[in-house]
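pasting Serine/threonine-protein phosphatase 2A activator for the record, 364 residues
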Amino acid sequence: MAFVHPRKVILSKEQLAHFQQSKTHNEIITYVEQLNQAVAGVKLSADCTISPGVQAILSILDKVEQIATDTPPIDNKASRFGNPAFKTFYDKVTEASPALHTLIPNLPEPAVPEISTYFCESWGNRTRIDYGSGMELNFLCWMICLERLGVVDKNDHVALVIRAFWRYIQVMRVLQSTYWLEPAGSHGVWGLDDYHFLPFLFGSAQLRGHRHLRPKSIHDPEILEEFSKDYMYLACIKFIDSIKTASLRWHSPMLDDISAVKTWDKVNSGMIKMYRAEVLGKLPVIQHFLFGSILPWDGPLPPEPSQEEDEHWGHGHAKDEREVGWGDCCGIPVPAVFGAARADGTRLPGVGLSGPGIRPIPFD
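structre below
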């Protein structure tokens, strides 16, 4: 295989439509569904086999967190927006990426530049100091690449979700709280939370068929306290409650609406439909998707952008809320919730240590 440096391709709704019918789109959805099925009914605390490939991923994630620890935020009290030290962190991770990938067993050396691109883009956008589901998608693509290259296989799917992916989310919480990463276009009110989608998708799979816990259980603080260690969906709700005031209805109405669904099976199937529509089906997200040799583009290629125009190359921004996905790109900067919480004197437990007008949700 001839490896290539991944690049952006999608500029138009027509190209987005082509992507939605493509082999790469199908592979992403299939992979999400496979991981989803693998963790149905599986707790975060469950025993699972940790292969050398998964262990390497975990070691790399530990080292990324250490880079963040070694790169403290700049004193920037006057601003609630992203901290400039994130750019230093990003540069350090980019510089370390080739060496980090040498930790991965059986990884072909020529593949490292290609898959490093997905890895580096998983942590947020260096220029905008923001993060959203498009960056989260890059981490998923990195795992897909590792599986396609034989580093991990289907026997690792449970561990890839409840160990590797969940460790990634924990590292991202550190980055979000350390550098006050701004939400990349989805501000809670339109999305599930300010930053993530997949923990709710995989987390709802974990809860499928649970004898006692129901979707409405997210409103019970005692249940969140007791079960958040075992289920990432509940852990995410507990995290939101820890950094935002008022009720879920006000700051996360989509999650509040979903809590009225009767079963986790319906929540989970609805999450997959929503991921198709609101992440993989939205131009403001997928115009930033990177195509290489492992996840290829099979349509006509646009001209290469210049270095100066690459950041906002060729794309337009959402003109109305129907075009906004979970991770819209360059919209009006929104202060990180961590900055707002600290400004209001809100305590952020554990952070840094490890309604009306809402669109219908596909849970019927």
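The two ends are 44 Å apart (CA to CA).
The first strand starts at residue 7 and ends at 8.
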